[in-house]
Amino acid sequence: MLSPDLKNALPTTDELPCSDDTPVDNEDQNFLPNILLFLLNSIWANRMDWYFGVDMGVYHTTGVNPRVPVVPDAFLSLGVERKKGGKSRKSYAVWEENGIVPIFTLEMVSHTPGGEYDEKLDIYRKLGVLYYVIYNPEFWRRDQHQPLEVYKLLDGNYQLQIGEPYLMLEVGLGIGRHQAVIGGIQQEFLCWYDEQGSRYFTDAEQAQQERQRAEQLAEYLRSLGVDPNNLPGN
Asked: How far, in Å, CA of 2 to CA of 65, rounded?
């Protein structure tokens, strides 16, 4: 816990850059984390005690300089406002969030390694992030790791967890990979799972399922000699 004097001496998020201005080197680094965000907007639509940031600076006091952020590809904090003071965040400063650090961070490995397996792992360890997830779909053989790795902070150190999807009990969600058509393109993406291991569907998938159910019902009615277009109330 920071002393009041130290907290008052720290800059506000209005005074701090919102990122480190490092460009991403592939489109998935923004696209795939946003799928997780859009899913959460549906899954936790009635909850106002969480925040999910994408490519946003996280400022903290566990590094060499509180003005130097770590910028995860995505992070999740629980017990904070969805909209801080009713406004969108420019960045996330732990000292402005009642000391709440992200419970989950995601790093996506790209063509240029960014210290995901060493430097950032150590930053998140010192910060106290409970779950650190590394997604490396293309270069995992190069890096001698698995495509998706979940690390949990236990006794001050990260330990690689086993199983996919992996259930993060403290978050109330599991995370894993899935293949589907998104925007007309077949690809792998990360998704959330419930505590029973069932995958949460995207809005597009839910709409498609509803159309399929409606078509099946209409076909069943036709098999009974009933015109589904001439039902009472239509």
From this structure: 15
Q: Are strands 50-54 and 185-193 parallel, antiparallel or unpaired?
A: unpaired
> What are the beta bridge partners of residue 151?
132, 160
Backbone angles phi, psi at 204, to 5 degrees: -65, -40
Pairing of strands 131-135, 104-108: parallel
- Find out whether 108 and 73 touch, Cβ atoms under 8 Å: yes
Single out the residue of 100, 39, 128, 30 nearest to residue 72, CA to CA: 30
Q: Which residues contact 142 (CB under 8 A, 6 or more apart)?
A: none
Is the Cβ–Cβ distance between 193 and 166 less than 8 Å?
Answer: no
Query: For the chain, which residues score pLDDT lower than 70?
Result: 1-9, 11, 13-27, 206-210, 212, 214, 217-218, 220-221, 226, 228, 231-234
- Cα radius of gyration rounded to whole Å, the chain: 21
**For residue 171, which of 47, 72, 58, 73 has the smallest C-alpha distance?**
47
Angle at 40 between CA 180 and CA 45, to 5 degrees: 130
Per-residue pLDDT tens over the stretch 163-215: 999 999 999 999 999 998 877 788 899 999 999 999 999 877 766 666 767 67
3 state SS of 179: strand
**What is the distance between the alpha carbons of residues 231 and 141, in angstroms, rounded to a whole number?**
58
